[in-house]
Amino acid sequence: MGRYNNPVNTEPPPINPTGFCCIKCGYDVSGSPVGGLCPECGKSVGESLRALQFAEKSCSKATASMIIGILSLVTCAAYGPLVLGPIAIVLYYLAKKEMAVGGYSKSSHTMARAGLIMGIVSIILFIAMSIFGYFMMMNM
Ligand SMILES: [Zn+2]
Q1: What distance in angstroms lies between residue 17's CA and the mean position of ligand 1's atoms?
Q2: 3-state secondary structure string, 79-123?
Q3: How many whole angstroms separate alpha carbon 128 and alpha carbon 136?
Q4: What is the pLDDT of residues 70-87, one digit of tens each?
Q5: How far is the CA of 12 from the centre of ligand 1 (A)?
Q6: What's the whole-number mean pLDDT along residues 41-52?
Q7: Percent of the chain with pLDDT strictly greater than 90
């Protein structure tokens, strides 16, 4: 049994994902070896791949957290924070968990934090308004 029977040695070189283009000239370099060069401009394919991997992603849960946080604030006088406040806070934690791996855009982090803050503020406002409303009724 020679070493050429080892499947590790017969494995093809790693191939770039499909739809993957050179960062310099935009030539489709998917299917070419990772260590190669762009056939069009000669730019390192590995460099393009790294740029692709570090491209900033956006987190949909962060966006949702912010939107629900806003809705919770808007519906503050109509029991909105009772339901929407906790959802905004939960979405913040889900987004934070998802973004913990890194590579997410700064705006997603900002949106998640805004969702958390608005969720908490809306709940505090709701409680404050409820207490205020209670005393108003007591004094009538
Ligand atoms: Zn190129």
Answers
A1: 16
A2: CHHHHHHHHHHHHHHHHHHHHCCCCECHHHHHHHHHHHHHHHHHH
A3: 12
A4: 999 999 888 899 999 999
A5: 23
A6: 82
A7: 46
User: In residues, how long is the chain?
Assistant: 140
Helix (H, G, I), strand (E, B) or coil at 41: coil
Which residue shows structure tokens 């017969």? 10
Q: How far is the CA of 48 from the centre of ligand 1 (A)?
A: 9
Residue 54 Cα to ligand 1 middle (Å): 18
Instruction: State the distance from the centre of ligand 1 to the C-alpha of 40, rounded, in angstroms.
Output: 5
Between the CA of 24 and the centroid of ligand 1 the distance, in Å, is: 5
**Is 2 a residue whose pLDDT tops 50?**
no
**Torsion from C-alpha of 41, 46, 48, 52, nearest 10 degrees:** 160
List the domain boundaries for the chain.
1-55, 60-138
Could you tell me the CA-to-CA distances from 82 to 76, 103, 112, 119, 125 in Å, in that order? 9, 33, 19, 10, 11
Q: How far is the CA of 106 from the centre of ligand 1 (A)?
A: 29
Q: How far, in Å, from the CA of 97 to the mean position of ligand 1?
A: 36
Q: Which two tokens stand for residue 138?
A: 């007591």
Interval between CA 18 and ligand 1 midpoint (Å): 15
